[in-house]
Known about the structure:
2 copies of one chain form a homodimer.
Chain A: E1 15-28, E2 31-37, E3 42-48, H1 54-62, E4 68-77, E5 85-96, H2 111-116, H3 118-121, H4 125-147, E6 151-153, E7 158-159, E8 171-173, E9 179-182, H5 187-197, E10 199-207, E11 220-229, H6 233-254, H7 256-261, H8 266-271, E12 277-280, H9 281-290, H10 303-311, E13 317-320, E14 333-334, E15 337-341, E16 343-348, E17 353-361, H11 365-374, H12 383-390, E18 396-402, H13 403-411
Parallel strand pairs in A: 3-5, 6-10, 12-13
Antiparallel strand pairs in A: 1-2, 1-4, 2-3, 4-5, 7-9, 8-9, 10-11, 11-18, 13-16, 14-15, 16-17, 17-18
Helix pairs in contact in A: 4-6, 4-13
Amino acid sequence: MLCEVSQLPNFLEKKVIVRGWVGHKRKSGKIRFMTLRDGSAVVQLVFSADELSDGEWASFSELKQESSVVISGVVRNEPRAPGGVELLVNSLEIVQIPEQHYPVTHKEHGPDFLLTHRHLWIRSRKQAAILRIRHMVSRAIRSFLDEQGFVETSTPILTPNACEGTTDLFTLPYFDLGDVYLSQSGQLYGEALAMALGKVYTFTPAFRAERSKTRKHLTEFWMMEPEMAWYDRDMTLELIESLIKHIVQMCLDRCESDLHVLERDTSALRNILAPFKRMTYKEALSWLNERGRALNFGDNLGAEDEVLIGESHEVPVFITGYPAKNRAFYMKLDDTDPDVVLDMDLIAPEGFGEIVGGSQREEKLDVLKSRLKDHGLPQKPFEWYFDLRRYGSVPHSGFGLGLERTVAWICGAAHIRECIPFPRMLYRIQP
Amino acid sequence: MLCEVSQLPNFLEKKVIVRGWVGHKRKSGKIRFMTLRDGSAVVQLVFSADELSDGEWASFSELKQESSVVISGVVRNEPRAPGGVELLVNSLEIVQIPEQHYPVTHKEHGPDFLLTHRHLWIRSRKQAAILRIRHMVSRAIRSFLDEQGFVETSTPILTPNACEGTTDLFTLPYFDLGDVYLSQSGQLYGEALAMALGKVYTFTPAFRAERSKTRKHLTEFWMMEPEMAWYDRDMTLELIESLIKHIVQMCLDRCESDLHVLERDTSALRNILAPFKRMTYKEALSWLNERGRALNFGDNLGAEDEVLIGESHEVPVFITGYPAKNRAFYMKLDDTDPDVVLDMDLIAPEGFGEIVGGSQREEKLDVLKSRLKDHGLPQKPFEWYFDLRRYGSVPHSGFGLGLERTVAWICGAAHIRECIPFPRMLYRIQP
């Protein structure tokens, strides 16, 4: 029976066929061992001269790393092996033995070498584990939102206006219509869709042409952006908290072995199932001031501040009520304190930084227009957006969750570039 | 109890609160009727003077189309009303009445007017139904593939090489690294991911800078691309057929009322649950020749030919074995007839054209290189791709499914531009 490696524990004492790629070989007396990966997991194979033809036994020594093979064998319990089982091989069919030695070995390679060989590096155990967890994070997001009646939809990547300046935007010519830009966020379109469909979300690539070279920057990344008619800020905080818990719970439940491969401290992930910490921006300032950071009202919290806050809490921390002047024009002013907005950032624990940002949106047209003016932005490109406030405006909120940042936190990955298959960075567009 | 309109049939005789936007009003004697949409569905509201305060009764007459309101009322069975229920209103709270009349009315509007008002047009009944079905198509795809152990992953939008010429590519400068291109397909990257993860799929925007202006062209569209290690062409045909049936079945099961709104002939959709028709390219030529189309071996089938084939069959039609010289270099040659490749196109019934295209991939490096040469393409940009054949090459296959084309077929929509929230076309980048 043809079987995926991840399913082998369900086939104890059964004869199965697995197909995949050769990992490491070793011998111990008259027994030969080899690891095999098939993309779903890794299993230890055991070769004994008694079980194989002479030809097959001889073939074993020819196998190089990443040779492709088809194996049949019997699944045996083996608590010491990865996955808790091993395969006693009955037959070995070689599909291809590479002519050259595989370039990505167990040696320490530099990041540039690994990124240049990213198409092969993704085969390695930890990288594949991260990519499977990335899928689980997406699945968890979709199952959670679909279950609650959200409609997944999409917003355009090619956008006509550089509404908030062109500094961080990729620009390209579009036929005879002049320059267009690659979207940084689908939010404004998401608001239009929420007025049409109620509760929506998008899950799309986003682009930021920032000349930054940090371990948290990608120029192309994936963002999930829900937008909900009738939601106020507090309902949105509740939604985000439930969503994040659902994501973590699904990863804990279904990616145990991948988290193990990554040597992730899962107790840190389990901690976040407790209620999240909430602080206002003003409380965060005091908290940071007490810890020696010289910040005043109106200052932005920097990456270092977010790391300090995150490292000091076992649960994610919501920060709400940033100064209105620092925040986007569409964020709703807080009626009880019009210097601040009804927003939220969510800071991951353990210093992984911000993973969610959002707000209640301003639903009053006159306030929206005056906020736009305060920000020095032109009105004309927003005329269509104003229509959402002209025709049946309702309270509504939304947020964006950065997929790779969330994956980096859940995986405990130091670099966000390992959390996307083919990272795009300031100096990296290959392969 | 707060309730979504689509859920009202589950709350017969119960008192509920619904929130949404006003549709059309009419009166009949001492009773007033109004439709209300909330994004999930539309319901008929019944206002009776006995049930409301004088103020509320007076408010009714002030309501304009797309006013936002909160309503409480009792759900009653009403087979003649949309959705089979109506709401007898107890209270009416007005959130906003537009100052101006809503521009998108029941009148016939021209396509340019509707596309310019796309942010509002999506609120109309049919457009919202299409977008909900679009979500269901995506959900069906993901549930089918996730269930079978596929890993959803992503391939880059920003790509470094214009491997097959720059004619139909959007081009943009990338920092100091020269020009890059917006991806038309993630396939080559998908192959690398299949060698790492076994069975993968991507679901991303794709871009085609074609100067075409037909009802089937978008410059930005969504494409779903699975890639499977160890799959040959025949396994891939089986997979596609099962997938398409699953999509249609889920839409029939869960989008009945939306398909009804679209006046979709669902018997045509039910027909496709029978086995799909398979013809080789050569058989398709004979079939077309018999119907008066003058085509010879080596000619491409045009959109008209695909429409003719699709209109003549009640089930989708696979066409396999196109001439090798017309097809991409990575498609595997058919050992039994090296003039043709192991590919497949799937033509939707009823003249909706091609919705899937794919092939088994050439796994032999020497054949791949010679095919590349035949196509007049340079080798250097493909060096990383060749590595997939150097290190553990295995038979593998994949395909691409165009989301909007599939949605157009399922919805019976004449124009693909209605199957994406904000269409991008040769002359359309707004809103």
